Amino acid sequence: MSEEILTAQTSEDEAATAAETAVTAEMPETPEIPVTPEAPEAPEIPVAPEAPEIPVTPEAPEIPTAPEAPEIPVTPEAPEIPVSPEPAPAVSEAPEKPATPTESMADYEDAIAASMKPIHEGDILNGTIIGVSDEELVVDLGIHTEGVVRLEDASDDPSFSLKSFSVGQPISATVIRRDNAQGRIQLSLKAAAAVLGWERLQQLQKDQSNITVKISEAVKSGVTTYVEGIRGFIPASKLSLNYVENLDEFVGREIEVRVITADPEEKRLVLSARDILREKAEEERKKKISNVQVGLVTEGTVETLQPYGAFVNLGNGLSGLIHVSQISQQRIKHPSAVLKEGQTVKVKIIAVKDGKISLSMKALEDVAAEAIEEETFHLPKAEEATTSLASLFKNIKL
């Protein structure tokens, strides 16, 4: 019995072993089937990363230039483009001024400070003319009230007119009353000229600048005019290069002058036109002299006699000197031995140097001798001179 039981058990064990073997045989086959290594190839296949590369989804948002759209909408330009202020010129200028608040702040501060600054009589204020009439100038002083300049406070010149001013012109004037009957500040150009005018006149004297003035009246030994509202005097000797007999001829004329004296303490202003005329005459003379040819023979009038020679007026603003050694072939001690003032003489130009013309009368004696030798005579046809012997005995009768 025991053997059978053992045999049966053995057979059962063999059967179990066989079953395990069969199972094991089957099991290795299953692991071979799951080509799990091929499965990782599947993740290689999932070109999923390629898909995200393909979906140029980011490109799509780039294409829709959605961000560009906000850049394109030059919304700020749109308000700039509406040049609505241009059609309305008055409105266009108004916005332009407040467009620079930072720039205007300092200006406002200055304007406010100026408006708050106390004004005293004698102060010199700067302003802009906003009104011109025959009787007064209205001035914008940039403060709470306007200024006014009456005709009698503008100049002492009796011929002065306020019409010489224009709207928009800047001026400087002195306060003579802080509040007149109209509630405006009364100003004076004359008072300002007493300070500023003398300063400018002194600068003109220093620079030797030329200014144009109009002669107001003739007085004893000269004429008067006004510069910067200040009365000036021009002596008769400074009016012209020559002596002036009738000073009234200059009244009303405009001439060019130069300041030669400007003394504010003495209130003395002296002008001169002669210096300018002399310079112009010298320039013209140099131009004329440059055209003078050495060797030219001409006539002139003896102007003055000096121990060293005689000055001869050649006309056209030119004059020359005949040195005493060039007056005659004979030696003379003084030009008066041969010449006298006012005498007309014939001279030859022998040199032009440094703007001076040198003349000679002695050189003409040689010229006269040459002219005599070269001189020819024209006889009538019936008495023509010939050189043949036949012509010499033609009218002789034997």
Notes on the structure:
The protein has 398 residues and is an alpha+beta fold. Among the domains are: 80 residues, Nucleic acid-binding proteins (OB fold (Dihydrolipoamide Acetyltransferase, E2P), Beta Barrel); 71 residues, OB fold (Dihydrolipoamide Acetyltransferase, E2P), CATH 2.40.50; 82 residues, Nucleic acid-binding proteins (OB fold (Dihydrolipoamide Acetyltransferase, E2P), Beta Barrel), CATH 2.40.50.140. Strand 7 and strand 8 form a beta hairpin. The N and C termini lie far apart (229 Å).
Topology:
Blueprint: H1 2-32, H2 38-44, H3 50-53, H4 59-62, H5 68-71, H6 77-80, H7 89-96, H8 101-116, E1 124-132, E2 136-140, E3 147-150, E4 170-177, E5 185-188, H9 189-207, E6 210-214, E7 217-219, E8 222-227, E9 230-235, E10 254-263, E11 268-272, H10 274-290, E12 297-306, E13 309-315, E14 318-323, E15 344-353, E16 356-360, H11 362-374, H12 389-392
Parallel strand pairs: 3-5, 14-16
Antiparallel strand pairs: 1-2, 1-4, 2-3, 4-5, 6-10, 7-8, 8-9, 10-11, 12-13, 12-15, 13-14, 15-16
